[in-house]
Amino acid sequence: MSKEQPDLASRGASTSEATAGAAEPLRGVGVSPGLAVGPVARLAPPAGEPAAATLAPDVDAEAEAGRVAAAAQEVAAALSASAQAVEGERRELLETTAAMATDPTLVKSAQKKVREGRTVPDRAVWEAAGEVAEQLRGLGGYMAERARDVLDVRDRIIAELTGSPMPGVPQREEPFVLVARDLAPADTALLDPAHVRAIVTAEGGPTSHTAILARALGIPAVVGAPGAPDLAEDRVVLVDGGAGTVTLDPDEAAVQRAERHPTAARTFTGPGRTADGHPVQLLANVGDPAGAQAAAAAGAEGVGLFRTEFCFLDRAEEPGVEEQVAAYRQVLAAFPGRKVVVRTLDAGADKPLPFVTAAEEANPALGVRGLRTARRAPEVLEHQLEAIAAAAQAEQAEVWVMAPMVATVAEAEDFVAACARHGLETAGVMVEVPSAALLAGPILARAHFASIGTNDLTQYAMAADRLLGSLADLSDTWQPAVLRLVEATCRGGDQQDRPVGVCGEAAADPALAVVLAGLGVSSLSMTPRALGDVAAVLAATDLARCQELARAAVDAESAQDARAVVRAGLPVLEELGL
């Protein structure tokens, strides 16, 4: 036991808020497994809404407008500098936020308010950012999510203008549990696992930036916990990122249990299999060439989801075939002789692209997205398949191709035929909408495999926007209705002797991985960091036990009950600190 442990336990027991009986734990959605204990440190708050005020008559409005631009540049420069210290999605998030800080729409609108209305700079930034954020929310989908970035840079620019403390993750010598109502993307990208032991937020869901980056960094996290804002600074809590609980003032035994299981990444050398040798292929989700290198280094047996959007985003026109070939080859080259499942362009909804999606849709999540974009721009899909085929020919990876957002048998049949025209022999579908799960048998009579995207399948099954933190309890793959759709898909795969994998965030949950294997899923694709944890739990559980626990989860009446019954039946989770 470390020297710090008794101190933590004594602090938990002696706090003035402790009661004679154990306090009821806070409950939320566990999105990154692991145990961690530490004092609460709250996210540094922004300065808040500035007073509505105008410049004094003797103040130069032009000079004050110049201060707005200068402050925005300072914020952007600081974020860009931070981006250079991290990699992958963390860098991308920081670079996106930095670009938002100097966005002409925001800066020029604020300057106009200073020049023409003689509004003081901090108030002008507040008003201009509010207008931009409202416009983005009205667009829905991906653009609505960007509204959070606007409000984040607003607060940073105002802090720069007023000399107030910069909002964000606190700087403390002692490791802590970070508590917030929600985290901006830039905040999550700046998280340091050496200092942040765990994360607890009142908002956010399983597919939020907070959840995804917490998993990638191995930081235990619970989101959607309504009582989080009420946790007092320095109160000691124990976070169970698998169970989704936050224990207040844990006793010494609980502290020792958490400290016995640090969240260091477990190594994975493959192959993935259950205790009795049943194979469950463990693959990685990859979004760019750098991600492919990281996945290969982590021991992934292959790639279960290669997101190709990195070639297309932030462009007015589709990239050329040769450019795509070069990009795809970098990913395929990292996995010679191993499977790489390439997903064709998943544009629309949260990833609008002007050359394949409409400028405005009343409900983008239910609009022209994924494979449906081929209705509007069939040549984009044809060019991409041509590029994938050329890259496959040039490299030694075993290339499979799948289409996102397939909803009908006819769509599956047409996509398989399109792949065949380009010499791509292993063509599959993503199961992301309930219709595809319910029609899995006839769909897989045409397609060679299916891969379940649990993020969208949950969203559509539960009619709950996965970006809306207030619905985090519904946006949970543990929902029995969602598990029944997974079961239906696997049943269709069995009928046609076709493999069914999972490539959604659910695959990274070690307890849920057992359930998925028990339902008949043959491969799980996840963030590389989760490979070791998932492999360890599967290796300690035989297939019959996986099937028993899967049945119990499917027959449960709520996500909370399903999670609880499975976790109670997996003592290995406690042994591993998961």
UniProtKB/TrEMBL annotation:
Binding site for phosphoenolpyruvate: 307, 343, 455-456, 466
InterPro entries named among the record's database cross-references: PEP-util_enz_mobile_dom, PEP-utilizing_PTS_enzyme, PEP_util_AS, PEP_util_C, Phosphohistidine_dom_sf, PTS_EI, PTS_EI-like, PTS_EIN
Domain Phosphotransferase system enzyme I N-terminal: 27-146
Region (Disordered): 1-31
GO biological process, one term: phosphoenolpyruvate-dependent sugar phosphotransferase system
Positions annotated as active site in the UniProt record: 209, 503
Residue spans of biased composition, Low complexity class: 12-24
GO molecular function: kinase activity; metal ion binding; phosphoenolpyruvate-protein phosphotransferase activity
Localization: Cytoplasm
PEP-utilising enzyme C-terminal domain ranges (all copies): 270-540
Family the entry assigns: Belongs to the PEP-utilizing enzyme family.
Protein name per its UniProtKB record: Phosphoenolpyruvate-protein phosphotransferase
Gene name tied to this protein: ptsP
